Amino acid sequence: MSFETISLLAPAFVAGAIISLAHVPLGQEVLKRGIIFLDLAVAQLAALGMIAFQTLVPVDEFSALGMYGPLVSGLVAALLCAFAFHVSEKYAGRYQEALIGCTFVVGASLSLLLMANDPHGGEEMKNILAGQILWADWSDIRLAAPIFIAVCMIWMMFKGRRQLLFYPLFAVAIPFAVNLIGIYLVFASLILPALAVVKVQNHKGLFGFAVSLISFAGGLAASYAFDWPSGPAIVLTMAIVTVLAFITSPKNDQPKSA
Predict the structure, then answer these.
(1) Is residue 253, in this structure, part of any structural domain at all?
(2) Do residues 114 and 57 lie in contact, with contact meaning Cβ atoms separated by under 8 Å?
(3) Is 252 part of a structural domain of the chain?
(4) Burial of 139 (C-beta count, 10 Å sphere; 0-12/13-18/19+)
(5) In sequence order, which ranges of the chain are alpha helices (DSSP H)?
(6) In terms of Cα–Cα distance, which of 77, 69, 82 is closest to 49?
(7) Contact predicate 154/19, CB 8 Å
């Protein structure tokens, strides 16, 4: 692989690495709580906020409002969604996952309706779902890196407050991730590394981060080598790495039954 190719792929890999800082611990918490589709629902509502702004607010796309307005709108939508799920958690009980799934479907349907008359709607939806991580540049990383680093640090520093912090931190991280890597890869990067280390008792976060980094590197390399879309290539690579990590985990690392 030439230096030019490495330079081209470097921003995408760094984007994946900084997103992993937040997604690995948050994904393990999602798995622990058993609300697997929370990330899909919040990501879809964040995407709905972005689409609504782009569709309903007539602004110059090259102005500051045009460039950052969709991201702010997605962040507000994600925060409202996360707050609603935090409140409903006390009342929905075993129906919480069903409520989360319904929210995803309604959000996706509203997104499609908003883009129904847009001649570029199909391409826009494809970008939101599959992402465009290969086109991430250093300016995108400078904007997003402080967010993901802060989320990771707050999560690690305030262990006793995680019950309270989970939904707000989740909602802050997701819109920036959707903007960089798309909904499919958001879901994969949260859940697959967490599944890869379920049998590991010590240093789950570190091993999960390694799985995520290997997957981003391998997926980007495969995308370049086979001319595949980068998002789906990383998802496929992450699934393979997860399976290999799971089946090769030492048996003596399996948690003992109570």
Answers:
(1) no
(2) no
(3) no
(4) exposed
(5) 3-33, 38-56, 64-92, 96-114, 121-130, 138-157, 162-181, 183-196, 204-226, 230-248
(6) 77
(7) no
For residue 49, CA distances in Å to 10, 38, 124 come to: 29, 17, 14
Tokens 């760094």, residue?
14
Identify which of 11, 23, 9, 10 has the alpha carbon closest to the alpha carbon of residue 147.
23
Least confident of 114-128, 138-152, 154-168, 224-238: 114-128
pLDDT tens for 174-191 read 999 998 999 999 999 999
Answer yes or no: is pLDDT of 85 > 60.
Answer: yes
Q: Is 172 a member of any domain? A: yes
Q: What is the Cα–Cα distance from 156 to 30, expressed in whole angstroms?
A: 16
- Paired tokens of 52: 């609504």
Both structure tokens of 258:
């109570």
Burial of 258 (0-12, 13-18, 19+ CB in 10 A): exposed
Q: Give the percent of the chain with pLDDT over 70.
A: 96
CATH code where residue 146 lies: 1.10.3470.10
Domain count, the chain: 1
Residue 208 and residue 233: Cα distance in Å, rounded? 19
Alpha helices in 93-137 (DSSP H): 96-114, 121-130
Residues 6+ apart with CB under 8 A from 244: none
* Residue 11 and residue 141 in contact, taking contact as beta carbons nearer than 8 Å: yes
